[in-house]
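Incident log, structure service

09:12 report received: a user says their structure output differs between two submissions of the same chain.
09:20 pulled the input from the user's history:
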Amino acid sequence: MPADDTDAAPSGRVRSRRTGSKGASPAIEARRPGRSPALTRRPSVSRPPRSRGARRLYEQARRAWDRPLTSYYLILGSSLLITVLGLVMVYSASMIKALELSLPASYFFRKQFLAAAIGTGLLLVASRMPAKLHRALSYPLLMGAIFLMVLVQIPGIGHAVNGNQNWIYLGGPFQLQPSEFGKLALILWGADLLARKQDKRLLTQWKHMLVPLVPVAFLLLGLIMLGGDMGTAIILTAILFGLLWLAGAPTRLFAGVLGIAALVGLMFIKTNANRMSRLSCIGAIDLGPQGECWQAVHGIYALASGGWFGSGLGASVEKWGQLPEPHTDFIFAIAGEELGLAGTLSVLALFAALGYAGIRVAGRTEDPFVRYAAGGVTTWITAQAVVNIGAVLGLLPIAGVPLPLFSYGGSALLPTMFAVGLLIAFAREDPAAKAALAVRRPGVRWKTMRRRVKMRPSGER
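09:34 re-ran on a clean worker, output below:
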């Protein structure tokens, strides 16, 4: 064998030990000419799923949601949108009813628009009033509401509408329902009462928690039931329970008051054939032998014919004499027919945002009056919305209560907008919200920008 062949083998073995593919380091292999980088790349480390982007978005959303002015903007924006959409739906749902009464087509809309304009003024006034002034108004408002509710029961002064004597005519086409202002009066007076008792540490005793809150609430309930308005009585009872729950009423006490209210309510229902028929129409799909479920069934027809996006504004069929009270108690059914499922879900989302913002205001404050008043207003609006929408959906008996800020009725709109102004005032009173609003003032912002400009280096823009 030639010498060069015998030398090649050992040298090849030496090369294989030093620079071969099995024993060579990755760095040496990478420097070898003709070697593909893909073959010499280090094995990639397994990475977790790409969740950093989603987590970052979640953190940004959470920080935006936890800003001091979130409650302020939610209350202001949701209430404004509900009111504006309600005006549109009142005009659409009431045109045929107005023409049936030989009135201009925009008759009910103009009255509602006037009430909304006055209510906007009340909202602005309430949003700028301090809590001390709200507490000072609680007793005069309660006395005035009781006085007007007594006047309703005097023959010749009070007037009956749809079988319920709860109205006082003010002259011309204007009339007033004092029981709507009784809700606001009970909230302000009850919040002031409970706040003063909490400051004196008296709420640990059940007698101080109940007296005089429950007797005064029962007085208002009695005056309301004398007129036959079961729906308003239900909402007032919900407000009472909300105040007791916020005050930390024990379970036994809460259950006792609830049991008494349930027995009284059952007695009033059983002694009235109209209320019994309303109770029997829950979930009804048939008109009944005498048409007692006509309104409930046609409300379901309106919602069912709306589809996903509705038939369009003004294109409702049920408002042409088929559905009673299309612009008041059953305006949500007309909204479902003309705006569809998308419109009704939007209305529900706006009420949910308003309710969440009210709970947020009540939970973040350290002032007991603000907590009780904000909780009472939130209970009022959400409970009334649930009762109204539940009746339209056939899940609850028809109680005859309007949808807050949405249905036709100036007597219901005015105190509700004042109550929304209360929530806005309480949201503004939060220390962090005060600081954020102060920064947003034009003068403060200009001074802040001037300071920022001075701190920049020369030549930088």
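09:41 both user submissions now match this output. Likely a transient worker issue. Closing.
09:42 reviewer note: The longest strand covers residues 164-171. The CA atoms of residues 159 and 248 lie 40 Å apart.
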